[in-house]
């Protein structure tokens, strides 16, 4: 789904982003960046056990980036809240683009940034708890790490949080 311009949904999320901010001592933290535009996103997860399931009870983000990066960050936090880890792992860029009723083709990578930050936060959580990491998630993590390293070399001190 692609549009030439930002949809009303994108403008609304950009103007009034949901779940903006950070969580102190998050259970999962993810950071992702895009080497081409230099945009970066941090995502914080709070995870609680309920009826033998791990539920994402709270989520916040901080993003340095374009209007689409802010809007996709906002949407990913909405999509992930209240989900189990397994459900969160299934969220894709298509879910974000669909929620926004489309993005200009040149802005599709902004939705990937949001998914990368989410994947990183889930990866960190699973790793911290010495849990099995799905091969797809590991692959994504390696890609994000490589991207972050390149960004670090190109734009020194880009990290939002250390
Ligand atoms: S222009 Fe790069 S994330 Fe939006």
Automatic annotation (TrEMBL):
InterPro entries: NIF_FeS_clus_asmbl_NifU_N (IPR002871). Pfam families: NifU_N. One of its GO terms (biological process) is iron-sulfur cluster assembly. It comes from the Bacteria. Residues 6-131 form the NIF system FeS cluster assembly NifU N-terminal domain. GO terms for molecular function: iron ion binding; iron-sulfur cluster binding. This is Iron-sulfur cluster assembly scaffold protein. The lineage of its organism: Bacteria, Candidatus Roizmaniibacteriota.
């Amino acid at each position: 789904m692609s549009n030439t311009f930002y949809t009303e949904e994108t403008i609304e999320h950009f103007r009034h982003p949901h779940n903006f901010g950070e969580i102190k001592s998050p259970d999962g933290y993810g950071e992702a960046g895009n080497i081409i535009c230099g945009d970066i996103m941090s995502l914080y997860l709070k995870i609680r056990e309920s009826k033998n399931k791990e539920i994402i009870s709270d989520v916040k983000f901080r993003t340095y980036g374009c209007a689409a990066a802010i809007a996709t960050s906002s949407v990913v936090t909405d999509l992930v809240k209240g989900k189990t880890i397994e459900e969160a792992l299934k969220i894709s860029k298509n879910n974000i683009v669909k929620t926004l009723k489309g993005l200009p083709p040149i802005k599709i990578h902004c939705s990937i940034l949001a998914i990368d930050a989410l994947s990183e936060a889930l990866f960190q959580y699973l790793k911290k708890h010495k849990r099995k990491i799905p091969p797809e998630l590991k692959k994504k993590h390696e890609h994000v790490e490589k991207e972050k390293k390149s960004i670090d070399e190109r734009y020194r001190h880009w990290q939002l949080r250390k």
